[in-house]
Amino acid sequence: MAANWKMNLSLDETGDLLERVRGAEVDFTKVDVLVAPPFTTLQLANRLLAGTDILLAGQNMHWEGKGAFTGEISPLMLKEAGCSHVILGHSERRTLFFETNEIINRKVNAAIEAGLIPILCIGETLKERDGKKTFDVIRSQLNESLKTSCQRRDLPESVVLAYEPVWSIGTGKTATPEQAQEVHLFVRRWLGENFDHDSGQGIRILYGGSVRPDNIKELMLQPDIDGALIGGASLRADSFLSIIRFYKG
Ligand code: PGA
């Protein structure tokens, strides 16, 4: 269960939220938990989460190691701040900040090289879904943002994919479990076709887009939905915790 805080939460709010999350009873044999705060609160989050099983991720990064890239942050900087993961290719990065699949491919490669685990986001717009282009869009996002990995036929099994239909992000419109499952299965098959090992089975595919306490259980019942990337509902301890504890009856 991965929390994407986006551009939210001050230092104080981060402290309050993480105190409550780390104090809660969570069965970490049943769920892996990760939070992705903004860059400015990563260090604080790292300190507060020390000694817990909760993982930390960046929301974005540059693909170069260092240099004249004003406003950017490198893979090693994220690692130094305590991150094990990094979210890449989120639809907000793609649409608002013009990130292309080619850029995302570079970032994925840089993350893997630096020992960070990418959480690669893909997803179609409403127009694409209505035009019956969902699978074409997903296929080309996968082909192009994992281009180098495809050429090498090598993708670490730790890599995480996140299917986030753009029309469901922050809109309250969740994909139905069946709609999500259909795409997840498509992604799983694509993995099986493009990589030699069993990555199709081993790689985790998260669903994201208006995940809430009242819809997480039915999403998690789907065979190819392995977890969730949660935006809005991860900003409050009560809703985030009840999503994390989806496994409770
Ligand atoms: P949301 O965001 O849960 O607020 O829809 C999900 C995301 O963008 O990762």
Note the topology.
Layout: E1 2-4, H1 11-23, E2 34-36, H2 39-49, E3 55-58, H3 75-80, E4 85-88, H4 91-96, H5 101-114, E5 117-122, H6 126-130, H7 134-145, H8 147-152, E6 160-163, H9 177-194, H10 199-202, E7 204-208, H11 216-220, E8 227-230, H12 237-244
Parallel strand pairs: 1-2, 1-8, 2-3, 3-4, 4-5, 5-6, 6-7, 7-8
Helix pairs in contact: 1-2, 7-9
The protein binds 2-phosphoglycolic acid (PGA).
2-phosphoglycolic acid binds at residues 4, 164, 169-170, 208-211, 229-233.
Keyphrases for this structure?
alpha/beta, TIM Barrel, eight-stranded parallel β-barrel, 43% helix, 13% strand
Give a short summary of the structure.
The protein is of the alpha/beta class and about 250 residues long. It has helices at about 10-25, 40-50, 75-80, 90-95, 100-115, 125-130, 135-145, 145-150, 175-195, 200, 215-220, 235-245; strands at about 1-5, 35, 55-60, 85-90, 115-120, 160-165, 205-210, 225-230. The protein has a single domain, classed as Aldolase class I (TIM Barrel, Alpha-Beta Barrel).
